[in-house]
Amino acid sequence: MSVALPAASAGAGWPERLYDDGALTPPPRPVDPRASIVFENVSHRYDDGRGGGTEAVADFSATLEPGSFVCLLGPSGCGKSTLLNILAGFEKPTGGQVLVGGRPVLRPGPDRGMVFQEPNLLPWRRVIDNIALGPDLAGRPKKETRRAAKRLMEMTGLSGFENHAPYELSGGMKQRVALARAWISEPPILVMDEPFGALDAQTRISMQELLVDVWLKTGSTILFVTHDVDEALFLADRVIVVTPRPGRVARDVVSPLPRPRVYENLVVDPRFARLKQEIWLTMRRSDYDI
Ligand SMILES: Nc1ncnc2c1ncn2[C@@H]1O[C@H](COP(=O)(O)OP(=O)(O)OP(=O)(O)O)[C@@H](O)[C@H]1O
Ligand SMILES: [Mg+2]
Most buried residue, 54, 119, 147, 278, by CB count within 10 Å? Predict the structure, then answer.
């Protein structure tokens, strides 16, 4: 279900973004019960081996509903990537735990797809083979996997680039390959660490729209890290503002903004402006208060 943005007609009011069936509310979609995430009093300290270290996260708790889109927003160094790495199973917390689908995370698993700021494509694999990496490593049938990869290439606007090498793509295209590579395994949870940070503003908005369109189809839970308040408000059902290090929850805001969201309309919506102001006030206060 792609969402079309009709041409703005002069004087005819703001363009509305409609779903395929002409509705203004997202159609119901299946939600995967394995996709719940609970951060339970998570703390993390990096020891330097010389008796010192860095307290990156302190007593961070949050429960994410299956199928929700949650953004983590906070200043550089506040522990956002640390939290994502703990959720992904790359790092063990020094306190508390993370539960996925009710079970403690002990190691990485195919139920959690990761997308990072850098696309990290394998330069020796063609685009389609980069997308198919996960199923190939899992020994899934090649033909079926290539069919799925082709479908994802269509969805992400990459058709025609199947046989290209990664170096022949633009930055935005590489990031679309990284997204398709995460999506091909249909993970119930998608963990994204500033995936659009390096893109220009226009490509970034297209990627945000693409992400929301696919998220609405898949029913996955997305935990998305960003520095950008507008990006968080465009994407999320809920924005968790994190304090400066050690990271704790400074503010947990459920978005009142309806979907589908049209960027051009959103930025002049008084609810958007109010929320943006509140989040900025929280971030500025937590610089020195919390
Ligand atoms: N592997 C590591 N070893 C030691 N210290 C680390 C390690 N990774 C992160 N840190 C420290 O933990 C703190 C939090 O880092 P983290 O990468 O989680 O922050 P962040 O919120 O993701 O920042 P940014 O927005 O800049 O990506 C920082 O002070 C950092 O120096
Ligand atoms: Mg980070």
Answer: 119
The protein residue with its alpha carbon nearest to ligand 1, atom 4, reads 46
| Ligand 2 center from residue 117 Cα (angstroms) | 9
Which tens digit of pLDDT belongs to each residue from 233-275?
999 999 999 999 999 999 999 999 988 898 888 999 999 999 9
CATH at 54: 3.40.50.300
Does residue 245 form part of some domain? yes
**Distance of CA 82 from the midpoint of ligand 1 (Å):** 6
Pocket of ligand 1 (CB under 6 A): 46, 54, 56, 74, 76-82, 245
The ligand placed nearest to the CA atom of residue 245 is 1
Per-residue CA distances from 206 to 14, 36, 103, 169 (Å) = 19, 27, 35, 17
Ligand 1 atom with the shortest distance to the CA of 84: 18
Handedness of CA 72, 76, 79, 85 (dihedral sign): positive
Q: How many structural domains compose the chain?
A: 1
What is the Å distance from ligand 2's center to 241 Cα? 14
The Cα–Cα gap between 187 and 174 comes to: 20
Judge whether 224 lies within some domain: yes
